Amino acid sequence: MSRQRVRVDGRQLSVSNLEKVLFPEVSFTKAQVIDYYVRIAPVLLPHLSGRPVTFTRWPDGVEGPAFFEKNTARHAPDWVRKVTVPSPGSAKDREVLEMVVLETVADLAWAANLAALELHVPQWQVASKLQPALPDLLVLDLDPGPDAGIRECCEVAERLRDRLVDDGLDPVVKTSGSKGMQVYAPIRVTDREHPSRYARVLAQELSAETPDRVVWRMEKVLRPGKVLIDWSQNNPAKTTVAPYSLRARPDATVSTPIGWDEVDAVRGGGADPGELRFHTEEVLARVEEYGDLFDIADRTRARLPAV
After folding, report:
1. In this structure, is residue 279 part of a structural domain?
2. What mean pLDDT value characterizes the chain?
3. For burial by CB atoms within 10 Å, which of 182, 189, 204, 269 has the most?
């Protein structure tokens, strides 16, 4: 194993096997993964702020085995922020988890060196007493079934946007970096289960309006030709891939914030859905041109309607 010491954002970091190809289809190396996360840090870090990160690690690249890792603090250097949070039900035989919060460029470089290709975060931040605060984000995850794709997701995303705006919310949208899309809105709630209830009702209503195009239940037999609105991602125990995170797909795609005009261009303007599939250099260029299209901090944080 080849190792070397590098200095990132004032921190000394040991990195290894920089020449290892993690995305063989596009010859994308670990060095390029680290470089991407360092360069995208100014827009990525605000979306990780205060949120314990779940890693998806691919130590032998995307063609090898992978694993989710929540209990990440044991790997971390002293300078990475560590938090102890209650264990979600999916963590076997643990009452608490020792997790990390990525706050600096050096933190991102450290995670990338672990081949943590994907970064997943909850819809809540850690409160001052190191307990989960109330959710501050609503997410509607659009997952196309067989014979459906990004164009169908754009149609559903536009309908969701209209409903959210009617309810006083201020939504943003991003690609998942895989097959689908995610619509978010900043929210204020007094009950941590409120987002799940609201999202479920919304998904059920859209499914009832167009049962041939939208489904709200998970069963695979229901999904051909339809878009699943996965409302369950609002469960406080669940996480969603962060904006600007790489995805472990053969061509090294990125979960990319997009404008509603881009959604509309695909939905009704005849634009190629393939134009909403982005890679690292394209994402960096978009940020240079447009800034952060996922500007949650600058959007209205509205009270979620009662359900």
Report:
1. yes
2. 94
3. 182
